[in-house]
Amino acid sequence: MKQIHPILLQVCYNFVADYIILFFIKRDLFPEKKQSQIIKAAAIFSMTYVIWEWTTTGMSPVTRGILKWCSILALICRFFKITSVSLFRKTITVFLCYLFLMGGSVTFFLTYIQIDQVKAIKEAYKAIAVLFLSSGILLAYKRKQKQEKREEEARKNIYDIRISRKGKTITCRGFYDSGNLLTSRITGQGVCIITQEKAREILMPKEQQEVKKILTDSSESLSWRMWAKQFQEGMYILQYSSVGKKNAKMPGVMAEQIVVLKNEEVLVKTKGMLGISSEKFVEQNTFSILLPADIFEREKNRNII
User: Which terms does the record give in the GO molecular function aspect (predicted)?
Assistant: First the structure.
């Protein structure tokens, strides 16, 4: 009975360690593998190691080492169905990286707390070390996975934009914002919101001055002179309300052409209103335009003004 206790501990901590290593190899190279397959493989790997540990005790260290690595490589090739040299090399490289991380961390932990007790207690500490380490790794991975998912979702909503107006054309990146419900009373369509810095590239010098005046005017009321500019100079006043702002205003200009592309494929080609904002977007370096919620419906409905 004295021998059963350390064997069970070995099975447990080897299962956890093998599962973590196989899990990360799956994530990096074999995403098609199912979670249940990883669990079964970890159990097989763990039992194989324990059998090796208890059946090769009387052998020389060299023979034991050869048998151990032959077993590991055979199990990896069998489980991941590796048939090419390049894939084998890549898989073993990833495996060794995670093995070094796992083994090095556990060894450091055990050395730090200076375990000199009997084997059973030492195995128990090993199990605790692996469990703590595995929990930390899984927690870090989950956080990274959520971050990658958010970034992936953001990338899906980013498009290439080409805007033409008064003989000028600019290209930039735009973010599709389903929450951008600002609608122009002139067109009856959603407004593309562009940063003031980017808008300067398609505005005439006089228009730039008018935009600056409107953006710096803190009064909530709109004078008749501002409304007159819509007819005289094509400078429109867009009113909106947001958090902390009531009856705010934004200058707007008409774009002769707004083209939305994804991977060089034209998704939308339309005309529309550009609202010019003095505020910087959160991801200023990623995009310069917020697309309205109805931008893709325009092409479907052929509702092009």
Answer: aspartic-type endopeptidase activity
Going by C-beta distance under 8 Å and a sequence separation of 6 or more, which residues neighbour residue 283?
Answer: 154, 175
Highest CATH level, class, for 157-301: mainly beta
Q: Tell me the residue length of the chain.
A: 305
pLDDT along the chain (305 residues), means of 10: 58 81 85 88 85 79 84 87 87 79 60 53 62 66 75 81 92 88 86 91 88 75 58 74 70 91 90 88 73 80 44
Q: What residues form DSSP beta bridges with 164?
A: 169, 257
Q: Return the bridge partners of 257, or none.
A: 164
**Shortest CA distance to 8 belongs to which of 134, 105, 114, 126?**
126
- Locus of tokens 């970890």: 42
8 Å CB contact between 165 and 280:
no
d(CA 60, CA 233): 92
CA distance 7 to 174: 59
Which sequence spans correspond to the domains of the chain? 4-155, 157-301
Q: State whether the Cα torsion 151-152-157-163 is positive or negative.
A: positive
Task: Give the CA radius of gyration of the chain.
Answer: 32
Which whole-number Å values give the CA distances from 276 to 154, 185, 255, in the listed order?
22, 16, 12
CA distance 104 to 92: 17
How many CB atoms neighbour CB 287 within 10 A? 24
Q: What is the pTM of this model?
A: 0.52
